[in-house]
Task: inverse folding
């Protein structure tokens, strides 16, 4: 009887040790799985910079209308008086480079819906399911001067991305956005659970927090209910709605906006970094077809100032 109890206790102890080892092993596996996320967000990394850079600019503000709206149109919120439009001095992102790369509206539209974004002095990218090529576009430069341009041709490259070419170059005072380069995967987390601080834009001409994830290959996802570690709080976020399509989604690196995607659906858009060859090919085709002497291509924003995380 004693021997039987000893065997029973021995077996129980054995299974307890097995259970403990399994739980501990699972804990270690989970810790290892979470380690890249921690490494990618530690001080000095690009993801940490994106969060603290945005949060620093928002410090002391609540994230209300006057903080987010980038444009002041004294006699019309709906942008009908382009000649009176000015860049808002109250916007949390005032004076960052790249604001003017997106037009402030169209000649036949009363809102900031379906806006393209310039990626060269002559070329823009937009959502395929929107058609900004059908009207004149109003670009407001850094000196609050309006430049009107029309589209000569547009090419669809897939994944709801299209490229257009204007009838004339825009001046440096309007400018264009660099894009996130293909090697961003060395510098930013690429799992669906690691949120990166981005910047979004909607038809109300708001610039707001856009919590992004890069775990879906050729697609960037975002969720206005989330926050990036060390980044903006949810009151800075805005949920995408109908009419916001084509407006840009960006990262703020230093004082420069860097183009990542456009609003394609409520919670995501195509990752331009995976489309660079196709977009460059379309830009070359458009330049050739329209006898543009300068063969413009995308400008990738260099990330070498930040440590690689993989």
Result:
């Amino acid at each position: 009887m004693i021997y039987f109890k000893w065997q029973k206790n021995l077996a129980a102890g054995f299974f307890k040790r097995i259970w403990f080892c399994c739980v501990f092993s699972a804990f270690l596996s989970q810790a290892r799985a979470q380690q890249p996320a921690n490494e990618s967000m530690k001080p000095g990394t690009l993801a940490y910079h994106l969060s603290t850079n945005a949060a620093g600019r928002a410090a002391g503000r609540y994230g209300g209308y006057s903080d987010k709206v980038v444009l002041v149109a004294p006699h019309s919120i709906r942008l009908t008086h382009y000649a009176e439009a000015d860049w808002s001095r109250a916007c949390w992102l005032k004076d960052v480079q790249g604001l003017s790369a997106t037009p402030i509206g169209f000649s036949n539209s009363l809102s900031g819906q379906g806006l393209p974004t310039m990626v060269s002095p002559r070329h823009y990218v937009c959502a395929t399911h929107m058609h900004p090529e059908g009207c004149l576009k109003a670009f407001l430069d850094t000196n609050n001067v309006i430049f009107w341009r029309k589209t000569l041709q547009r090419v669809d490259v897939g994944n709801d991305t299209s490229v257009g070419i204007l009838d004339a170059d825009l001046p440096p005072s309007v400018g264009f956005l660099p894009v996130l380069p293909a090697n961003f995967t060395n510098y930013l987390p690429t799992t669906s659970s690691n949120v990166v601080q981005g910047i979004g834009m909607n038809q109300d001409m708001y610039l707001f927090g856009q919590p992004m994830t890069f775990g879906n290959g050729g697609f960037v996802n975002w969720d206005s209910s989330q926050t990036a570690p060390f980044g903006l709080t949810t009151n800075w976020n805005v949920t995408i709605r109908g009419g916001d399509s084509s407006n840009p989604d960006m990262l703020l690196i230093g004082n420069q906006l860097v183009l990542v995607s456009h609003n394609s659906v409520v919670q995501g858009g195509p990752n331009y970094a995976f489309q660079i060859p196709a977009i460059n090919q379309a830009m070359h085709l458009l330049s050739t077809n329209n006898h543009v002497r300068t063969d413009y291509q995308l400008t990738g924003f260099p990330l070498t100032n930040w440590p690689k995380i993989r």
Summary: The chain is about 25% helix and 25% strand. The mean pLDDT is 87. The helical segments are 2-41, 46-58, 65-68, 276-289.
